[in-house]
Amino acid sequence: MRSTCFRRWLAVEMTVQENWGVSLPRIREFFQSQRDVKKVRDNHFRFGRCEIFLTERSGGAVGPIPVPRTQVEFAGDERDTEEIRRRFHLRFLSAGG
User: Angle CA(77)–CA(6)–CA(14) in degrees, nearest 5?
Assistant: First the structure.
């Protein structure tokens, strides 16, 4: 959980929490591969004025197949938040077919 003090410093304009069926290491690798994303801690990154927090959740399953779960929280300036979310979605969203 983020501290109230941190939230006041950030002056959050936009906060989005998403749950993904992607493992924490894969998501962490994505953010580490972005040249303009800075690693703050293992599961905390910064893109411009957007903070990104990763939290591993207990996995689920689709029938007998285990599915990892990771919560991704984006918080900060609306423009920066939308830009890094767009990149993230382009990497991890896929259409079935």
Answer: 25
